[in-house]
Amino acid sequence: MDASGILQIVLFVGIVVAITPLLGGYMARVFSGERVALSRALGPLERALYRLCGVRPEQEQHWTAYALSVLTFSLAGVLLLYALLRAQSWLPFNPAGLGSMPPDLAFNTAVSFVTNTNWQAYAGESALSYFSQMAGLTVQNFVSAAAGIAVAVALIRGFARRSARTVGNFYVDLTRTTLYVLLPVCVVGALVLVWQGVPQTLGAYTEATTLEGDRQVIAHGPVASQMMIKHLGTNGGGFFGQNAAHPFENPTPLANLIHMVAIFAIGAGLTNSFGRMVGDVRQGWALLAVMGVLFLAGVAVACWAEAQGNPALAALGLDQPVNMEGKEVRFGIASTILFAVVTTAASCGAVNAMHDSLMPLAGMVPLVNMMLGEVIVGGVGAGLYGMLLFVVMAVFIAGLMVGRTPEYLGKKIEAREIKLAVLAILAPAFGILGLGALSIVLPAGAASATAAGPHGLSEILYAYTSAAANNGSAFAGFAANTPYQNGMLALAMLIGRFLIIVPVLAIAGSVAAKKAVPVSAGTFPTHGGLFVGLLVGVILIVGGLTFFPTLALGPIAEHLLLATGTLF
Amino acid sequence: MIHRPKAIGLLDRAILRGAALDAVRKLNPRDLARNPVIFVTAVAALLSSLLAAGDLATGGSVAVEGQIAAWLWFTVLFATFAEAIAEGRGKAQAASLRKTRTETPARKLASADATTTTAVPATSLRAGDLVLVEAGDVIPGDGDVVSGIATVDESAITGESAPVIRESGGDRSAVTGGTRVVSDRIVVRITTNPGESFLDRMIALVEGAKRQKTPNEIALTILLVGMTVLFLLVVVTLPAFASWSGTVIPAVYLVALLITLIPTTIGGLLSAIGIAGMDRLVRFNVIAKSGRAVEAAGDVDVLLLDKTGTITLGNRQAAEFIPVPGVAERELAEAAFLASLADETPEGKSIVALARERFGFHPDGLERDALTFIPFTAQTRMSGVDVPGQDPAGRGLRSVGAQAAPQAAITEIRKGASDAIVARVGQRNVTRDLALAVERVAKAGGTPLLVAKDARVLGVVYLKDIVKPGIRERFQTLRAMGIRTVMVTGDNPLTAAAIAAEAGVDDFLAEATPERKLELIRSHQAEGRLVAMCGDGSNDAPALAQADVGVAMNTGTQAAREAGNMVDLESDPTKLIEIVMIGKQLLMSRGALTTFSIANDVAKYFAIIPALFIAGIPQLQALNVMGLASPQSAVLSAIIFNALVIVALIPLALRGVAYRPAPAAVLLRRNLLVYGLGGLVVPFLGIKAIDLAVTALGLA
């Protein structure tokens, strides 16, 4: 890794840390229903939306009602998007004259976007009309992100409140997050991207004649508007099949940096909002520190693995056996690795290189990031509540060691919370290991892997990990668009989203109802370095060890075999 | 003299023998099902035994398979042994108590004024039955004395050899089954049904099968079950993932992997830890009515401590004579001395001692017959002496008695609480100086005792509350642990403040009444704090019931003992502090072993994973960081370590982790280092050592 590479990493981390308190503080005010700078402009719109939808903003919901609202809203989203994709050929803004999606792919895509996964078993430019991209995908990019954030906010309220019956109003949280957080940032961000050269047009694909005299169709469309929310909302669904490796999605190093910062911005900011809302900002910084440690460890491992170069190339007598396969020359190693780690840490799934082509151990880092439950910054909202699930586990395991019933932020962690946290941690593991194993055993599933040996195993493992973790990035080389995979991966995405959200909201309701034990010298401290270390350990042991055997069979085996010159 | 039950050695031979038998008995599936982790281990052991048997039948080599199956059974046995040994220790404590219960005959009365009794076995008595108990009889069950007064030998329960008085009404009416009436006769109303008495509950708490799991234990069990399911998922799906590379994993290895990964260490010791915690309390002569109460003790944030007996020595001591102007100190001292001669209370004795020390007065050589001692009564609230003759000049009264003056004149000397004496002599005889002296004593935390000769108040005896030595340091420790101490006293705020400052408590409740005590507990609880207190009287019952941890004194009323969730057999209110420590130690032991158990998994993975796949992918040998000899010895070593670590940790589970009071942050750092980091490192060393032994012995 050269100096410029290190500088890029330092710059990126510096920007994220700098905007965390700014965005975090702003979001905390938005979630608390306070007036913010944009209230004057957007307030009337907000109130009009409530009136239109019959939402009574002052009426808060019990956690069960909140959960029911999330589920109903998501179900409606799936049905609407499915209908839209199936009816695409009859709908407007379809200059390329694209046909409707087949049912299995439409179902997979609808589930994928509603669950904030954005797994794409299709290539956008050849499968989706502008209308589908804008009214279908981009809308879900906004509301699925807002729904995830709303769930996190409900959980924060649970910890912040005392003896409370309610955890907030889902529709208010959804509306305020979209209006005051996502939309303004996206409007500004999209304009910056347009300045950087990202297209934003409803015009038909351009036909060009190449120097050789061939005809070439150049796809474009309303790209910039989708780009910004795709990253900010950690959705990751690209306009083009190549995602952020495509020059129209990611034209310049500055655009690349903006993308990466956007991916982490809300997830990191939420830790700060959390700290503020529970009345102790240090609690938020501690969580961010845990995320930071795991993130930087991932970056270090991946960089080291890539820097080793490919021994197979070295064997051919190349001077610099740098592994550039599957990478954009424009970005180089550092930006590619950083993007890969960022996008998988944050459950975004946008990619600017093919993870399939990373060195085995570098390719394992994205896999591990997702397997840990997307808690390293994580998906917007999902990262925070996923992290808080691990906090509940860590506090319970080690908290007893100070001789008291474990408590977090004054709330006692008891059987009910443990039961729910265990459920939420088991669900994605089932999605990855259970459904992944099934896909290997059943011929219909195994056929999707194009490579043999450990690499093929990694392809399947990656697909199910990405789906269950609601990440959406693909390892490439995996034939995703088959009826079997469309169905099973959709199932993995649903498990990974809602079997976590429901227990999380139940925990929110449960801790909200509790009294808070005042802090004393006997209180287990959850803001210092010791706690950060403990939490990192629990995440690695509980979250990571589960997958160690499969990783040993996949990327680790591939790495060791590569060293002996065996390729796949 | 209190003699606590003898501490039982950790490795008492008789208990070990009994436990070994019980360990086998506990293999009963119904018993095993109480502990999900160990149940899964037992199923795995059964499965691997069948696999080995199957291979044996087909003529395969089962050397390693058989050993694995055997060690899995050992794992289960070690876990049941741990529980059995903890139970054995608890049962040994309870056994002597239980002995007194069996075969006790009872003389049942049909009604309170019935004259005839019917002989029935004690075990048939139900709540509300009346029994007659006479000198020499064993009281057949817990109850209240409804009529009569008797001395009772309670040494069987408390270890206190001096008999105590039990009488109807008042705060000393409760009797405990199994104790013996030494003199007189009483009629007792039984208050518990068979199987619900004190003793029964105590026995149930130290017996695994009947023990109710405590809230934290339930939560921990859920976590352990969750981890078991998680690792079950890992192991069940593993053959599918391995099949991709054409690797076939022997089924018995998969079983071994599962058992090493699931938290068998804490799973096997969990119940032993709980029982041992109860047992520690019992050895402190405290009986908890539920495990929940012991856990709550660890969580306590506020301790309400009675001043007298807990913070101060029960008795106050005379520290100074303060005469009013115009009275010599010697005259005051002499009057106080005479008035206290017959006073057998510690306060009275201390006045005599002080007068003797200051002025050399001596009780001997006094014509006691001439003196008429007036004892203290609750009505007059004063005591004193009537001395024949008069001594208006104040020359000294000690000679008066000797002269035996024929006059009928009598000098009345009285000492008592200030309001009582003032009421006697009349307000007009109270000078400003006297009022100041009284206030000075009160402000200093003492009790002013007024001494009057007829209608003339001579001055004040300063009775000082003596704060127990070392109590200040204990409160400092408690503060460091985050526990607030609140002193509860009937004293006025002035006195209370002075003693509170001297003892170093955080807060005090002066002029406490049962209502104010209850109110204080409720207000702390409303803020989310857990409150512990102890009490003995009937009027303490509501507060004891309200407190999260209510420790009733065994000498207290039945109402108090019913209301509290623990009973201190020695009736020592200071023990509240130890109870809190025992509660904390119980929770810490659980946390420490859980952390240790989970941290162990890292090393086990590195032992077993290479062994599983090495046949298919030889390069995975690189993960064999411990350099274990062969796949067979690696798996075997991991499973042996997994079993042996349970045995190795039994003493820790029984004794509890070392506990020194400290702030949570310090405890966490120390325990994380020992049990977290230790849990990571120890198995690497242990498995390697076992592997060397296994290879040397040619077992694999």
Your description of this structure?
The complex is a heterodimer of chains A (568) and B (700). Chain A is mainly α. Chain A is 64% helix and 2% strand. Chain A is built from 20 helices and four strands. In chain A, strands 1-2 form a two-stranded antiparallel sheet. Chain A has a two-stranded antiparallel sheet with strand order 3-4. In chain A, strand 3 (407-408) and strand 4 (411-412) form a beta hairpin. The two termini of chain A are 26 Å apart. Chain B has 700 residues and is an alpha+beta fold. In chain B, strands 1, 2, 3, 4, 5, 6, 7 and 8 form an eight-stranded antiparallel β-sheet that branches. In chain B, a hairpin with a 7-residue loop joins strand 1 (105-109) and strand 2 (117-121). In chain B, helix 8 (251-261) packs parallel to helix 22. The interface between A and B is large, with 71 and 77 residues.
List its traits.
heterodimer, A: 568 residues, mainly alpha, two-stranded antiparallel ribbon, 20 helices, 4 strands, globular, B: 700 residues, alpha+beta, 8-stranded antiparallel β-sheet, 7-stranded mixed β-sheet, 21 strands, elongated
SSE inventory with pairings:
The complex is a heterodimer of chains A (568) and B (700).
Chain A: H1 3-31, H2 39-53, H3 63-86, H4 103-114, H5 124-127, H6 130-160, H7 170-196, E1 206-209, E2 215-218, H8 223-232, H9 253-277, H10 281-307, H11 311-315, H12 332-345, H13 360-371, H14 382-399, E3 407-408, E4 411-412, H15 415-441, H16 443-446, H17 453-468, H18 483-512, H19 529-544, H20 548-563
Helix pairs in contact in A: 1-9, 1-12, 2-7, 3-4, 3-6, 3-18, 4-18, 6-7, 6-8, 6-18, 7-8, 8-9, 9-10, 9-12, 10-12, 10-13, 10-19, 12-13, 13-17, 13-20, 14-15, 14-19, 15-17, 15-18, 17-18, 17-20
Chain B: H1 13-25, H2 29-32, H3 36-57, H4 63-101, E1 105-109, E2 117-121, E3 130-134, E4 143-153, H5 155-158, E5 164-167, E6 174-175, E7 180-183, E8 185-190, H6 198-205, H7 215-243, H8 251-261, H9 264-283, E9 286-288, H10 291-299, E10 302-306, E11 312-323, H11 329-340, H12 346-359, E12 372-374, E13 382-388, H13 398-403, E14 410-417, H14 418-425, H15 432-443, E15 447-453, E16 456-467, H16 471-480, E17 484-488, H17 493-503, E18 507-509, H18 514-526, E19 531-535, H19 541-546, E20 549-553, H20 558-563, E21 566-568, H21 575-613, H22 631-655, H23 664-696
Parallel strand pairs in B: 10-17, 10-19, 17-18, 19-20, 20-21
Antiparallel strand pairs in B: 1-2, 1-3, 3-8, 4-5, 4-6, 4-7, 4-8, 9-21, 11-16, 12-13, 13-14, 14-15, 15-16
Helix pairs in contact in B: 1-4, 3-4, 3-8, 4-6, 4-8, 4-9, 4-22, 7-8, 8-21, 8-22, 9-21, 9-22, 10-21, 11-12, 21-22, 21-23, 22-23
